[in-house]
Specification:
alpha/beta; about 850 residues
């Protein structure tokens, strides 16, 4: 007993000693960190620093009125994020910021109804620009950022151990004599130092976030690369130290973050890989999420302004459609048939037979225009610009507009109709009581359409004309229950209402839309591709928002692409270039772009998957590729998490995946849930090419386990009945497929025609010669004849069930449909005896037996053997 007590005391002493040692180590570590931080923050006397003196002299005269550029943007909610650092030594941080952090900030801005731009000037200043113009672009961009945010630009700064390039302003061959005075240049300052002065030192900026890298970091890099990360000039080191201290004296810990990265691998200065920078990501996102909401509060925004802001964001890249815009304006403001009539060959249902018949007679004024084109020709931007222009003339028109997008809320036809009816009631100062009957009626598409037509007819009572503009009607939901009422609100009631005009748009490839509208005497505006000059204007306008420019060679290479006449192709290419950070290889990057829109999408997707260190985007792509019915957000997050432990993927990673894949997704509503699937077959093919067979197989296995073993407990039976057989078939698991339909509690409930579709493919392909001695007819014994178990059926006696799918045999072919086994699968029994198909007992010659049959669906091939994989007879 004494020995046990002694051992226990010894253990307690050892544990106490261990705790004390651990505590000492933690304290020592914290002290070292604090000491290192204090060393970085050591204050020097800036009163004798000539650079700091010049900055102090400029502070009293600080103003935001120095900006000489376009001032119209100040009235808009724009957040322009300027990234400042020396280039070579912060290549990896900038890449991480541009490709992983800024997209998250863009989502935050979008949710706050704010237009987002990033200013990353690693490229975008043409080679033929001199030093003077190069510096002007940088400083003018900061002035614009200041002007748009009342002197508080969104500013992200990285400082390390390099001071940066110091221009020689005394060189009059490069700089004009008044250059220094124009920009209030601090003599001897680097361009990075001047960016900091303009954005963060002339007065404290609450929208500035500063990252300072530990001075010891270059020591962890090989000597070959170290010169790219440190200054060799002692004078530059002193000025850098002065800059850091001026920042430490101006800002608190909440805006200055010191960090010490670790190198994972190095090949060259542009391939230097640093360990996970997620801490920087969280700091940036959390800080600017708060600052955006404070700078652009939502409290003073009404619903209409928010809706109009979304439309303005769609019109921001409107270029080259001025003539079409004028035509649509004429249509809305005159009583002339500006456009030709829609004409479709009645004998064919292909959009290739679509034509605009300029000579077709019309005895009345058509009040409906269909804007159509190939995908990506700029229909949405055109209508968005039209809405933006009309909204400025609200005193002349009553305007209702609706833009259908990937957002499921915008795809509901019922939501659009309700919104239009409510707007019309507002125009007419008309109110209705929202009683229970009204709420029930709103669920009926037919009732909503009737109400819609009623208010359109009453538009003649309005003092101002009514304009209704609906973009991308082909994307509106076409669920089975609403198939009959889809687009039936586009009717002749508009021709009977001279005070009302309707403009809708649809893709040219959509035959169903054109055929549905062909008898309504609709006029049509068909958009063609942009001219070369218009395409160049589009690119220039796009890059001007990011303060970038291409040189002449780069313009030529880009505009020589076959699909450069389509705004969608141009936007995809330009967005990809915005994230590209290697100026020296920019022209080669442009040359690598494919001509085809969807090939370009594949190219971009391949880059996204390659750069995805988490592999979450690859996994999500695999699930969306392999699934049959689409996946909800819950399904996706469970599959990418640990569904066996019921742990979802966290919201941060899910948002990252969704952000990267959003351009390739089709989102729609099924009941109350948002469903995600891939947008086009070409995208599906691209992902199939990019993922390995092993990845696809693993995705199918995950989906199978999720729906069959996990989600079956959530009672989503219909999805399970569709998804599980599909995955089993694709995986070649024939035994499990038969077992699912015959024994699984949810599989048994599957419609028999679906069972037949899967199972009859598993039947033996050999033909049976009936009544031959080597072949066996299938029977059921008297005991199993009337039982309702054993054939994989939900209801129905065994004797009336198909041996393949368990469906009814009432409609089997007369004199046919008998179930036989070929010589390879025959059942060996005693002479003149049979074996019961259900219980496997022997049926003697004098015992009652009932022959089994196949249903009409499964007996499409007469006399085919009824043997199924995994079944034993």
């Amino acid at each position: 007993m004494g020995e046990i007590v002694s051992v226990q005391k010894t253990n307690i002493t050892e544990q106490s000693s261990s705790r004390a040692k651990l505590k000492t180590e933690r304290t020592t570590t914290e002290l070292k960190k604090r000491e290192k931080s204090e060393n970085m923050r050591r204050r020097i006397d800036l009163s004798k620093d000539p650079l700091w003196k010049q900055i102090l002299l400029q502070r009293p005269s600080y103003t935001i009125d120095n900006y000489k550029g376009d001032r119209s943007s100040k009235s808009m909610r724009i957040a322009r994020f300027f990234i400042s650092s020396t280039f070579k030594d912060f290549f990896y941080e900038r890449e991480f910021l541009v490709k992983h952090v800024l997209p998250e900030l863009e989502d935050i801005c979008r949710n706050s109804v704010v237009t987002f731009y990033d200013c990353d000037l690693r490229w975008g200043i043409p080679r033929d620009f001199g030093d003077s113009k190069t510096i002007s672009v940088c400083l003018d961009t900061i002035e614009q950022c200041k002007y748009e945010t009342e002197g508080e630009p969104f500013f992200i700064l990285f400082l390390g151990s390099r001071y940066g390039w110091v221009p020689d302003l005394s060189d009059q061959s490069k700089f004009s004599p008044d250059f220094k005075d124009y920009y209030d240049w601090v003599s001897g300052a680097s361009i990075t130092h001047m960016e900091v002065v303009k954005a963060a030192l002339l007065r404290p900026n609450p929208n500035a976030l500063i990252f300072i890298r530990n001075v010891e970091f270059p020591n962890s890099i090989s000597k070959d690369l170290r010169n790219d990360y440190v200054d060799t000039s002692k004078h530059s080191e002193q000025k850098l130290e002065s800059l850091k201290n001026s920042l430490f004296q101006t800002y608190s810990d909440s805006q200055i973050i010191e960090y010490t990265p670790s190198v994972i691998a190095e090949e060259n200065s542009q391939a230097l890989k640093i360990e996970d920078l997620s801490e920087i990501q969280s700091k940036v996102v959390n800080f600017f999420s708060s600052r955006v909401s404070q700078t652009f509060p939502m409290d003073n925004l009404d619903k209409n302004w928010e809706k109009l802001a979304n439309v303005k964001s769609l019109a921001v890249n409107f270029v080259g459609r001025e003539q079409e815009l004028k035509q649509l304006n004429r249509f809305l403001t005159t009583n002339q048939n500006i456009f030709p009539m829609l004409d479709i060959d009645q004998s064919e249902s292909s959009s290739n037979d679509f034509s605009a018949n300029q000579n077709k007679e019309s005895s009345f004024q058509s009040n409906i225009v269909l804007v159509t084109s190939e995908s990506g020709a700029g229909k949405t931007a055109l209508l968005a610009k039209l809405v933006e222009n009309l909204s400025e003339k609200s005193d002349k028109y009553n305007l209702i507009y609706h833009f259908v997008s990937n957002n499921p809320a915008s795809q509901a036809q019922s939501s659009f109709l309700e919104e239009t009816i409510d707007s019309m009631h507002d125009f007419m100062n008309y109110t209705t009581e929202n009683n229970e009957n009204d709420k029930q009626d709103s669920a009926s598409q037919e009732t909503l359409i009737a109400k819609f037509e009623t208010v359109v007819k009453k538009s003649s009572e309005l003092s101002k004309p009514l304009m209704i503009i609906v973009d991308s009607v082909d994307l509106m939901e076409k669920s089975e229950q609403h198939q009959q009422t889809f687009l039936s609100w586009v009717s002749r009631v508009f021709h009977e209402s001279p005070n009302t005009k309707l403009i809708i748009s649809s893709s040219l490839e959509n035959d169903a839309i054109l055929l549905r509208l062909r008898n309504l005497d609709i006029t049509v505006l068909r958009l063609q591709g942009l001219s070369r000059a218009q395409s160049q204007n589009f690119v220039q306008k796009f890059f001007s928002n990011y303060k970038k420019q291409l040189d002449e060679t780069q313009y030529e290479v880009l505009l020589d692409k076959r699909n450069a006449c389509f705004p969608l192709w141009l936007e995809m290419a330009c967005r990809e270039l915005v994230t590209f950070g290697v100026f020296e290889t920019l022209t080669d990057k442009i040359r690598s772009f494919p001509d085809d829109i969807w090939e370009l999408g594949k190219n971009i997707l391949e880059r996204i998957l390659t750069e995805d260190d988490t592999k979450l985007i690859s996994r999500a792509s695999g699930y969306l590729l392999c699934v049959k019915t689409g996946l909800t957000e819950c399904d996706m997050r469970m599959l990418m998490g640990d569904f066996a432990a019921k742990n979802q993927l966290n919201a941060k990673n899910w948002n990252m995946v969704l952000r990267q894949l959003r351009p390739y997704l089709l989102m729609y509503k099924r009941q109350s849930e948002v469903i995600y699937s891939l947008k086009e077959d070409c995208i599906r093919k691209a992902i199939e090419d990019l993922l390995s067979n092993e990845d696809c197989q693993q995705s199918r296995l995950d989906i199978l386990k999720y729906f069959r073993d996990f989600k079956s407990s959530l009672c989503d039976e219909r999805t399970i009945q569709i998804e599980v057989p599909f995955q089993l078939q694709k995986l070649g698991k024939n035994n499990e497929l038969v077992s699912f339909f015959k024994t699984h509690e949810i599989g048994i409930k599957s419609p028999y025609f679906e069972k037949s579709q899967f199972l009859k493919r598993l039947a033996c392909s050999k033909m049976c010669q009936k009544n031959q001695i080597n072949e066996t007819q299938l029977f059921v014994c008297v005991f199993c004849k009337n039982s309702m178990k054993g054939m994989g059926q939900l209801v129905r006696p065994n004797a009336q069930c198909c041996v393949i799918c368990s469906g009814p045999t009432n409609f089997s072919p007369v004199g046919g449909g008998e179930a036989w086994l070929c010589v390879m699968h025959k059942v060996n029994t005693a002479p003149n005896c049979s074996t019961c198909f259900v219980c496997k007992r022997t049926i003697l010659p004098n015992m009652e037996k009932t022959p089994l049959r196949k249903c009409m669906l499964c007996s499409s091939i007469p006399n085919q053997c009824s043997f199924l994989t995994s079944q034993r007879y």
